[in-house]
Design goal:
Helix content is 35%, strand content 35%. It is an alpha+beta fold. Helix 3 runs antiparallel to helix 6. 26% of the residues are buried.
């Protein structure tokens, strides 16, 4: 009986520690926090992941929120280590990945270990690296003023930061 209890406890701990079970991105920011930040009601939400990225060695989970005027998505990529994340998430790598599309990438300060703002005519993404996790808050389909949208996404990122 004692061995069975230890086995059950060990398996439960492995499942709880597994990123597949440990990272419900939709629960990191409530619908009301999202709605308050973006200024629009959330009509739906959908959790996807994990998706494995062989190039970076990370796993990514995404929560997509439906809005009347577009979509809002929160993605969290988890790397094997902080150094792996720091080596992959650089301004140079982002620019290299996005060189064939019309997306402007700028560095942001004052949040996380590294932060970037990605903008184009379709939307805006605020990304933050903190330790071994890299997360992105994206709004698409909006015609909001970019400065207002940037402030909204940064507000959501600040809600996420202590939870990661």
């Amino acid at each position: 009986m004692r061995c069975m209890s230890l086995l059950v406890l060990t398996v439960a701990n492995l499942i709880a520690a597994s990123p597949v079970y440990a990272l419900d991105v939709c629960s990191l920011v409530s619908r009301s926090e999202m709605a308050a930040a973006i200024g629009e009601a959330i009509s739906s939400e959908k959790l996807d992941g994990p998706d494995d990225d062989q190039a970076s060695g990370s796993q990514t989970w995404t929560c997509t929120y439906g809005l009347a005027k577009g979509v809002l998505a929160v993605s969290v990529a988890e790397f094997a280590s902080t150094s792996a994340a720091r080596n992959f998430v650089t301004l140079e790598n982002l620019q290299k990945e996005l060189k064939d599309v019309q997306i402007q990438v700028t560095e942001e300060s004052g949040i996380g270990d590294r932060a970037f703002l990605l903008t184009d005519e379709e939307g805006i993404t605020f990304t933050v690296l903190k330790g071994a996790r890299y997360y992105a808050v994206t709004a698409g389909g909006h015609k909001f003023p970019p400065d207002r949208l940037k402030a909204s996404l940064r507000k959501i990122a600040n809600v996420l930061l202590p939870k990661l």
